[in-house]
Amino acid sequence: MSVAVTPFLAAVWKAQVTELSSGNLDVVDNVLSTTKVLHHLVVHGFKVLMPLDVIPFIFSNYFETFRALTSYIHRRSAFRALAWSWQCKKLTPLSSERTWVRYFLQLFYAELTHPTPSPDKLVVHLLSYFTNVVGCLLYQQSPSAHSTSRTVITTTGDVELNDAMVDECKAQIGAFATDMALLSTFVELVVVRYMRLTPEDILMWQEDPEGYSTLQESMTSEDSVRACAEMLYLSLLQTHRDALTPCILRMMQSTSAWMASPTPVQDDILRADAVLLAAGLSSYDLHESFDFEPWFLHTLVPYLQSPISQTVSGVPVLPRRIVWLIGCWLAQLSNQVRIPLYEALLQLLSAPKSDTCVKLAAVQTLESLVNDWGFDQATFVPFLPSAIGCLYTFFGDPAVVTTDTRLKVLGCVEAIVHVCGSAMGPCIIQVVNPLPAIWEAAGSVDANLLRGKILSLLTRIMEIDWQDVADVELQNMVLSVVSFATNPNQPDSVYLMDQGLALQTLLPLTYGPDVLAALWAIVQEQPRQEKELVVVSYLSTLAAASLHAPAVFFTVVPTDHVSLFLDTMLQFFFSVAFTAVGPVRRRIWVSSLCSFLTVTPAVLERMGLILEACVEVVGEADPLDVNDDDLATTRRSLLLTQKTKLLPPTIPYIKQYVCAQLNQCAQMVGAEAFNQSMALVEASVVNTIQAL
User: How confident is the model over 389-414, as a mean pLDDT?
Assistant: First the structure.
């Protein structure tokens, strides 16, 4: 049907366009409706673009005709025309491009280079078309090079590729891209014209700096000209790296010369910002062609430390861009160079009149620096007090109003604590002191996000081995937040439970017996909902204590309460879902239950349930093996180090342990009592135990 309808509809559309060209504005709505119908018919009505006589007319006239009629229809149909050809490229790539790609590349290039600015939506379609053509992997290599056939799955059906089809498309694209002068001019156009900040960006920066920063991180190529231009720039650089690298380096050299003696011309500032953006995006592609460190020392740092920086409408465009750029090139910075970099970033953070966007960029770059594989702890330690102070000062700045910004600041503090570890020393108190006030002040709808980040930060602190870890105030604060986060009677616990339990599991390792009594007091509360999740965690702590520190266990659980402890563990083992307990806890529980076989005769009454639990655990898969050789010892976290020291029992160990404990139990209670107890155990369980 599409074959029959398309020629008729194209004739109607052509007649309407002719009538509109003569000045009859009454047919505008009809033209728009026909355009839309023809759009969907051509895009969705054919699996491939069939060789109809009407197709060449549509391809050659669709966009060109409406570009000439913009005075009548305000480019609405031009958007549809370009979107139509762009969708044809996506849905039927080989059919649409084998004949028409060169034509559209030349046509759209002329539109992009036209002195008159085009609407953003039109430019997005133009740039997207170039990106799809340049970045299409189908054109990179002929199928015969792989000695196999290649079938491409598209939304309109499978397409079987052959050398002739791919070579024809490559020839169409090559005719446009072989002119290196044209390609270099095009790349420079994309950078300096379409990757620069717009007046709307500057206005939003002035009115809402935090919102502007968040928007820059979330822009997509579907609705932003700059994001779309960035995608095209990267595609061009990846496919023509050798040819375009000299052009990019020339732009960077020109920008460096301007930054040495900057002028207050706004157009020059925005151009420099666009070039620095391109330099950051292409850091991976240029790392072998450009030595970033000398440029950083002799151009970027002096500009950052200059008392007077050029602005656009009062907005410090270039300082923010330079700080962002540094984060893109961290791999090329030596430890000696990072010292002046730390100084420059902290100077920006501590400046009372520094722009909020610049400070936020400094926070993110500082976090990238400490998380980088080349981070040297000794180099950064002298800056610790200043860094923590600057971050908390920025956190409390009246200009900071969004939770997202505060989360980024706390995230940076957490990253510093994590990588510096015990080197934090007295700075731990500096980190902890503001947290109670932040916890109490978090009263908005996003309070749980901040409190969750505080719990995560405290977890990192508990991982650190430092001499003042037993600080009473710190211990009380941690117990307080754990009690709040793990209390199901608190409505917010649903958001904080996981992080609260993660912090709680570290408390016995950090404080030992001193904290177990307090944790046991917390678990005695009768929660309103989801009590299993809380009780399971505390039972796991007690079970681990019974294995690794029996004296501590019996300090908390008197001997006459052991039977109650065993009954509670068995009840939860068989009643709580496997995912709630998890394989690690199940192994610890089973090992703990078996440990009591040689402690109290009360286990004889529960022998069947204990052995049934053992059979379940030894029959489970073993996904918990840890290979220490695969862990980078220089970058291993303290938490992982502690966990590898206290790994849950392995399946082979549990098998041997069960058999050994049963033999000792038989000797302790006597053969007659032991046999009577085993007679009550299911035969299938006994057979499995005997086979261990």
Answer: 94
Retrieve residue 586's tokens: 């199940």
Window from 231-235, 393-397, 593-597 with minimum mean pLDDT: 593-597
Separation between Cα atoms, residue 261 and residue 326, nearest integer Å:
21
* Whole-angstrom distance, CA of residue 230 vs CA of residue 425: 44
Does some domain include residue 543?
A: yes
Amino acid of residue 576: V
Flag whether 611 is in a domain. yes
pLDDT band at 638 (very low <50, low <70, confident <90, very high): very low
pTM above 0.85, yes or no: no
CA proximity to 520, closest of 508, 533, 510:
508
Rounded percentage of the chain residues whose pLDDT exceeds 70:
78
Contacts of 53 (CB under 8 A, 6+ apart): 7
The amino acid occupying position 209 is P
Coil, strand or helix at 261:
coil
Look at residue 613 and tell me if it is in a domain: yes
Q: What angle do CA 510, 516, 517 make, to 5 degrees?
A: 145
Cα-based distances in Å from 316 to 205, 206, 238, 303, 311: 10, 10, 31, 12, 5
Distance CA 362, CA 326 (A): 10
CA distance 278 to 282: 6
CA-to-CA distance for 203 and 212, rounded, in angstroms? 9
pLDDT digits (tens, 9 = 90+) for 329-371: 998 888 888 998 999 899 899 988 889 999 999 999 999 999 9
Rounded-to-integer distance, Cα 358 and Cα 492, Å: 34
Instruction: Indicate the number of domains in the chain.
Output: 1
pLDDT tens digits, residue range 641-664? 434 444 678 888 888 888 888 888
SS3 state of residue 158: strand
Contact 138, 161 (CB under 8 A): yes
Domain interval for residue 662: 531-622+633-690
d(CA 25, CA 71): 11
Contact 133, 167 (CB under 8 A): no
Spatial separation of the C-alpha atoms in residues 453 and 496, rounded to whole Å? 10
As given in the structure block, the two tokens for residue 215 are 């928007």
Side chain identity, residue 583: P
Residue 555 within a domain: yes
| Span 110-148, pLDDT tens digits | 888 887 777 888 888 889 888 888 877 666 665 566 555
Res 577 pLDDT > 50: yes
642 contacts 548 by C-beta, under 8 angstroms: no
CA dist 396 and 390 (Å) reads 10
Is residue 217 pLDDT above 60, yes or no? yes
DSSP per residue, 592-639: HHHHGGGT-GGGGGGHHHHHHHHHHHHTS-------GGGS-TTT--HH
